[in-house]
TrEMBL record:
It is found in: Membrane. Its main location: membrane. It comes from Lactuca virosa. One of its GO terms (cellular component) is membrane. It holds the Pfam family MatE. This is Protein DETOXIFICATION. CDD domains: MATE_eukaryotic. Belongs to the multi antimicrobial extrusion (MATE) (TC 2.A.66.1) family. GO terms for molecular function: antiporter activity; xenobiotic transmembrane transporter activity. InterPro entries: MATE_euk, MATE_fam.
Length: 467
């Protein structure tokens, strides 16, 4: 995988480093003054990307989160149904689709950093093809949601209500297929139940259409040169990287899905599912901020590695970890201040409110950890480490975290709190490992590997395919 020889592509693309804002890599940092100067410079670049990304992800997430909040005021069964559909059916599909689409972050980001802007539109079209086929494969999950939920042991009432909701949410699945590649393409350049279902579907498709109009209007310049048959070339290689991205992100997304799923097996399942779904709803709002940093740092790292700026890439990791931690702490403090008031915003049932209040300390800890972890995943996407991180996720989440959570929740009889403590411990271990990897990485070697990846994907082979 490593390439130590200097290539003509690397030599020529350093002239195009203005795409990422710097003509050269940052100099070595000597002393505290140098550190703060570079910290200020990198902070501006990070927030320039993270600000719009946070705005977009928060509002996208709010579509489902607000629907779920309204359901909490209709009844406990409605809230449980929406929660299970969002977490298990749509959550599963979301993980697959966003993961498959995230391969585009690595390829577009590194190609843009190297000045190979012309290939971005072709990459996006390849991703559309792959994600549309993936949506067709996932379609039976929506159609047969009720029997599947019953098969894995969910209650009869929750399974039937969630299954009905899933049928109505099929249009959203296909909106995912087009929306995620469009979002990654733009970021790389720095740019009653049925009623709820209708609103969500229209909102997602409105975003798809609005972004398509933006791209087709010519605003993206060289990055979009029209539809191309090149989108159908070299698809298998693209699929392999997409699958690695999907596995990495799915393992993270499904981990939270499992929390709600396991709560459905506890005594008084509706209250347990409702309480945990409210907590995961709140975590979701915080994670949207973290996903903004995820998108920003993946662009920063991929751009800088593509432009052969290893020191800048490494320093951007330091900056994103700092801001992610600070924001997580601030959110936890706000939650603690309003701990007596916020449960009533999400449900009218007093039992549900009391259960949520009891989970507040865990929720605060989760806000901190889950602000740092997605940012580190963004580093992995920007550097192209998806396959390695997938193995780490399997070990930390499913070999360590899930068994510990089930043991504490069911064997030790801690209930919802035990399941969450065990699984949160798995996230802590995974986060510490990612931090260790980031600071032990040879970033010069990563820049060399990015050079080879650009050659393989957007060098002579790609250009010949176009001709």
């Amino acid at each position: 995988m490593e390439s130590n020889a200097e290539s003509p592509l690397l030599t020529s693309t350093t002239k195009n480093a203005h795409f990422v804002g710097d003509v050269e890599d940052i100099p070595p940092i000597n002393g505290i003054n140098d550190f703060f100067v570079q910290f200020g410079v990198e902070s501006k670049k990070l927030w320039y990307l993270a600000g719009p990304a946070i705005f977009t992800t928060v509002f996208q997430y709010s579509l489902g989160a607000i629907t779920q909040t309204f359901a909490g005021h209709v009844g406990t069964l409605d809230l449980a149904a929406v929660s299970v559909e969002n977490s298990v059916i749509a959550g599963f599909s979301f993980g697959v689709m966003v993961g498959m689409g995230s391969a585009l972050e690595t390829l577009c980001g590194q190609a843009f950093g190297a000045g190979q802007v012309d290939m971005l539109g072709v990459y996006m079209q390849r991703s559309w093809v792959i994600l549309f086929v993936t949506a067709l494969i996932l379609l039976p999950l929506y159609i047969f949601a009720t029997p599947l939920l019953l098969l894995i042991g969910q209650t009869h009432d929750i399974s039937h209500a969630a299954g009905q909701m899933a049928i109505w949410m099929i249009p959203q699945l296909f909106a995912y297929a087009f929306n995620f590649p469009i979002a990654k393409f733009l970021q790389a350049q720095r740019w009653g139940l049925w009623g709820g279902a209708i609103v969500l579907n229209l909102s997602w498709w409105f975003m798809v259409i609005a972004q398509m109009i933006y791209i087709l209007s010519g605003t993206c310049g060289r990055a979009w040169s029209g539809f191309s048959l090149g989108a159908f070339s070299n698809l298998w290689s693209f699929v392999k990287l997409s699958l690695a991205s999907a596995i990495m992100l799915c393992l993270e997304t499904w981990y939270f899905m499992a929390l709600v799923l396991f709560a459905g097996y506890l005594k008084n399942a509706e209250i347990a599912v409702d309480a945990l779904s409210i907590c995961t709803n709140i975590v979701g709002w915080a994670v949207m901020i973290a996903i903004g940093f995820n998108a920003a740092i993946s662009v920063r790292v991929s751009n800088e590695l593509g432009a052969a700026h290893p020191r800048t890439a490494k320093f951007s990791v330091v900056v994103v970890i700092f801001f992610s931690f600070i924001i997580g702490v601030l959110l936890a403090i706000i939650l603690a201040i309003f701990r007596h008031q916020y449960p009533a915003l999400f449900a009218d049932n007093l039992q549900v409110q009391q259960a949520v209040y009891a989970l507040t300390p865990l929720l605060g800890a989760c806000l901190i950890i889950n602000n740092i972890q997605p940012a580190l995943s963004g580093v992995a996407i920007g550097a192209g480490w998806q396959a390695v991180i997938a193995y780490i996720n399997i070990a930390c989440y499913y070999i360590f975290g899930v068994p510990l959570g089930l043991t504490l929740g069911f064997v030790a009889d801690w209930g919802v709190k035990g399941i969450w403590v065990g699984m949160l411990t798995g996230t802590v271990v995974q986060t510490l490992i990612l931090i260790w990897i980031c600071f032990r990485t040879n970033w010069e070697k990563e820049a060399s590997m990015a050079e080879k990846r650009i050659q393989n994907w957007s060098g002579q082979k790609a250009l010949e395919g176009e001709q």
